[in-house]
Amino acid sequence: MAGIPPALDEGGAMEIKAMRRAGTAVLWLALAAAGCWSGAVAAQTSSGGIADGRGRVVALATGSYHSCALRNNGSVACWGSNWMGESTPPRRGYFTAVSAGYYHSCALQSDGSPVCWGGNTDGQTSVPAGERFTAIAAGAFHTCGLRGSGTVLCWGLNDHGQTTPLLKPNFASLVAGWAHTCGLRADGVATCWGDNSQGQLAVPAGETFTALSATQWHTCGLRANGTAICWGNLSGGHLSATQTFTALAAGGNHSCGLAPNGAVACGGDNSDGQAAPPLLKANRYTALAAGAYHTCAINQSGNAVCWGDNTYGQTAAPRGPFGMGAVAAGYSHTCDLDADGTLVCAGSNASGESSPPAGTYADIGAGAAFSCARAATGSLSCWGFNDVGRATPPAGQYASMEIGAVGGCALTATGAPACWGSNSNGQASPAPVWLVGAYRQIDLGAFHGCGILANGSGACWGNSGTSATSVPAGSWLAISSGEQFSCGLRPNGQLACWGGDMAGVAPPTGTFKALASGSHHACAIRDSGGLACWGSNRYGQADAPAGRFVHVSASDRHSCAIREDGARVCWGQVP
User: Fold this and answer.
1) In sequence order, which residues have a C-beta less than 8 Å from that of residue 281 and are 6 or more positions away?
2) Are residues 42 and 160 in the same domain?
3) Full-prediction pTM beyond 0.85?
4) In the predicted model, what is the mean pLDDT of the chain?
5) Domain span at 26
6) For the chain, what is the domain count?
7) Which residues of the chain fall short of a pLDDT of 70?
8) Measured in whole angstroms, how far is the alpha carbon of residue 395 from the centre of its chain?
9) What does each C-alpha distance from 455 to 26, 134, 451, 474, 475 come to in angstroms?
10) CATH number for the domain harbouring residue 198
């Protein structure tokens, strides 16, 4: 049916369950499939990271003809059909879950409050006031949320009873198909309600599951032993009954599963290539979602990969926010992270700071005469000048990393910080998790550091002689630290700075979505994609170029940014 405008007769949805570990408030993202879009169980990930274009994709949601991705910096991006605004998510906010319906999409904010956008023909985007959820699932023309108590609240079209859950509370996860909904209890028992015209509600007796996936005419469940079983209209075929999987995604008339080795296997309709995953060298995936005639997955580099029908651009994951890489401006050198994960550095190499090790990486940072990178596995590597241990990162796996002038900090998947390098002013000694709770984001300046806690509040430590550690009260989306100052981005998109060079200096007005601080200046990306820089401009480092950008990095005497088309632009005294 590729090329034919979609009729109102097929669809599905996907939800991602966000769970809070007791005492940490760290968000673990677990995809549970739903709808003709479907989903999967995702790898564990942290919720930290600066809100800019370099975030890794940690979860996918596929609607009938559009797709959405959640990045580890809390942002959401969508592509494909946009007839009613379903692919235009909010530009600001910190999200922990995303779900795609037919003409609408929804997400959960960090406090559990739902946000929906797109078509509201049946009230499917009219979120209930004051409600907080741990999971959200968007069906064709209805939406459901899972409360912390395990009860379900639904809104939107109810022509088949899809918004009237059965009185079986204590669900642990939730999925929504075209016109039916299913809940999965902690003991693995599934219950479905709504349209049963094809038997999609007829859960096999005695079966228990670890995850569900629902589409228009059938529903699938993943057993504890990894095998799958589906019920309803299976005329298009389905997955092997003997193969084992870690996740399922039920599409329009096809289904896919994620094998333990990261390979994808699909069955059913392949008229548009939706059941034929690309056979790329060493291509392994961590999460999966299926639409009406397309399928998407997250590869090991944290990028979205899609295949199948692309009539409405639903398989064309945007290059900018996902696969173009990043740039890191050091004091006298610059490092680029290419789309394939390889590193290229230029400028001063007096201490080896521009000689990165071989391999592929997911993140890059640069400081004074040294550089660091984080691999897709979470391990850290640094090179260059190594006095005070600035190029000696800790062992282990980390979900995010930020590099300062003479050291760095990283966060584990549970939000625990680990810093290295100079600690002359206490800048490498953030408050421990047992005292303040988990961190959402962390950043390091020259003499101090700052972070955002799980509740959104800011915390700074180290040198307070210039009030650089006197973080204003309130919630923050991102904080970036310079030599003796810090700037922060509020959830409403407004900027604020404090300490040192920025004392009494008002940042630019307007609303922004990304932020980076250099030694004595800062730059930010507006909601429109334009750049604004302020502070010291002795070397032209604050002369922001025109254009639309997705990532920015600021250092001592120069700044760099990546445009929407993937081109890297630098200004100031560029090494």
Assistant:
1) none
2) yes
3) no
4) 84
5) 15-320
6) 2
7) 1-55, 73, 91, 168, 280-283, 318-325, 339-340, 464, 503-504, 565-566
8) 24
9) 10, 16, 11, 10, 8
10) 2.130.10.30
